[in-house]
Amino acid sequence: MKxxxxxxxxxxVLMLAGCGVEQQNDAPEAxxxxxxxxxxxxxxxxxxxxxxxPKxxxxPKxxxxPKxxxxxxxxxxxDSIVSTGNNARLKKVLEKARSGExxxxxxxxxxxxxxxxxxxxxxxxxxxxxxxxxxxxxxGDNINFVNxxxxxxxxxxxxxxxxxxxxxxxxxxxxxxxxxxxxxxxGETTNTRAYESLVHDxxxxxxxxxxxxxxxxxxxxWNVQDNYIPVGKHYDLPMVSVANAIKEPMTVKKLDKKLFxxxxxxxxxxxxxxxxxxxxxxxxxxxxxxxxxxxSLPETGKKGLEFKHVVMLESDVTYEGITINPGSFTAKDxxxxxxxxDRKPSFPKNWMRDVSAGNxxxxxxxxxxxxxxxxxTANNQKFGEADIYVxxxxxxxxxxxxxxxxxxxxVILIIDEKEAAxxxxxxxxxxxxxxxxxxxxxxGYTD
Length: 447
Hints:
The chain is an alpha/beta fold. The chain has helices at 2-25, 72-80, 88-98, 111-114, 125-137, 155-170, 193-203, 225-235, 242-251, 257-260, 269-288, and strands at residues 81-83, 103-109, 143-149, 176-180, 210-215, 239-241, 311-313, 323-325, 351-352, 362-378, 385-390, 393-399, 406-429, 439-446.
């Protein structure tokens, strides 16, 4: 068995050897090998670099809820109201107007009330207010209105003019009385007493009239309202301030001063319209309020009531108990102030010194507590200076000539006593002024 295995092994070796020789002479074609599937190792996923742990975000502080933008014109209307006061009297006027009854309205003041600064007087706040009141509260033609504004009028002259220019023109007592002197009353001769006395006169009427205090303002926001607000508070009156209304919007340039004013004192058309709107806004606020009981009228004044019921004295009129000798003051001065709209002369019944009539003094004897003299100043060299005597004693000198005069009124207090007494007043030209004229426009007194 072993020999047979060796024989087969030897035969296999020989066969292999023969095959090897042939391969050296003719190399066989390469036998294609099967495609080997190569397993590629998976790409390593890059490990991210460690990042800093984010700090917790701070919770933002709550911010204030933004306020809605305020309408500055609406704020101006609110600021214009100093006080609505006790509303009983004013509500009574509004109810009377709505019912169709006649309502009598008067506004008394200076050049702003007259319409100064407007393109024409009828565009002044007083006339605009009368029309707006009629349209808003009136019923047909039941609103009777008088504008008693006169340029250069302080409250003391307003008290003198009240009967002639308000009561006589209306033909009755006012139901609504608006008083405006906050710009004209610098250095006013009675120190607010005539103003309060006039307010008290109207509040004392049997018809329970309503009074509104209106404070006009210069373009720099100046006026004397601080003198009059205590009076308004004393009587719990509605009050309107132009200065309060315009100060903020003008300061921050929302309201153009040149749009509101034509000069330092007088509103332009726009300013007059706004003054009317301030007054109408006051009425609307009062109208929406709950009605109040009418308050009682204080028996004593805040500043003083010495000038209640002032009586005006003028020429060509005879007064019981008063003796007047005009002396050489017998002429009539026609170069005087006129009212803006109807051009009516302000004080036509005056006493002017007639140079050709000699140098006799003007004398007057009357019983009074106080006496105010209203005289004219003009930029005219024909007018001169006169001396004033009371009961034979020199009181003061007054000059009708002024470089800045414009035939305007000037009021001076020449008698101021607590008790009524008989007095004699003398007015004569100053020595050396005998060739000059002097015009006494009128007097005002209380007894």
